[in-house]
Amino acid sequence: MNSFKQLYLNFLNSLKDEISLYKDPENIWLLSGSISNTPGNLCLHICGNLNHFFGAVIGNTGYIRERDQEFSKRNLSREELFGAIDETKIMIGKIFDDLTQDDFNKIYPINKFGENVTYGFIFSRLVSHLSYHLGQINYHRRLTDL
């Protein structure tokens, strides 16, 4: 379990690094060409996704996801994005600290990713989702923040 926890925390730290590397903070909210989601919105989406599928479903945190707002909010400051990332990191840490090795094989309680998939499958699926969007942000930054 600790390896998954560390993987998520490392990726979330990388997300924070990517946001901080923008020379011009306004570019965090820039749409360019056929890129349909800003890095700011992808950051909010990553945090919303993890808070829903980990926090609300596994940890019973009471988190209520507003997915549309993940993509419609605009012009939050870097510090607000960092706050969302930091809160997500804290939640991820607590969730993994409370899990046991036996939980890895438990059936995930909702069928969003198929019937009877395990927590282990969900952990792998969600970390690949996080990595995918982190790559999009990195590419956007290198493309637009010249």
Structure description:
The chain has 146 residues and is mainly alpha-helical. The protein has a single domain, classed as Four Helix Bundle (Hemerythrin (Met), subunit A) (Up-down Bundle), CATH 1.20.120.450. It is built from 5 helices and no strands. The chain is elongated and about 50 Å long.
Total number of distinct structural domains: 1
Major sheet characteristics: none
Q: Radius of gyration over alpha carbons? A: 16 Å
CATH topology value:
Four Helix Bundle (Hemerythrin (Met), subunit A)
| Pattern of helices and strands | HHHHH
- The tally of strands reads 0
> Briefly, what CATH class?
Mainly Alpha
Give the overall shape. Answer: elongated
State the helical fraction: 55-70%
Topology:
Layout: H1 2-21, H2 39-56, H3 67-72, H4 78-98, H5 119-144
Short summary:
62% of the residues lie in helices and 0% in strands. It has 146 residues and is an all-alpha fold.
Features:
146 residues; mainly alpha; Four Helix Bundle (Hemerythrin (Met), subunit A); 5 helices; 62% helix; 0% strand; elongated
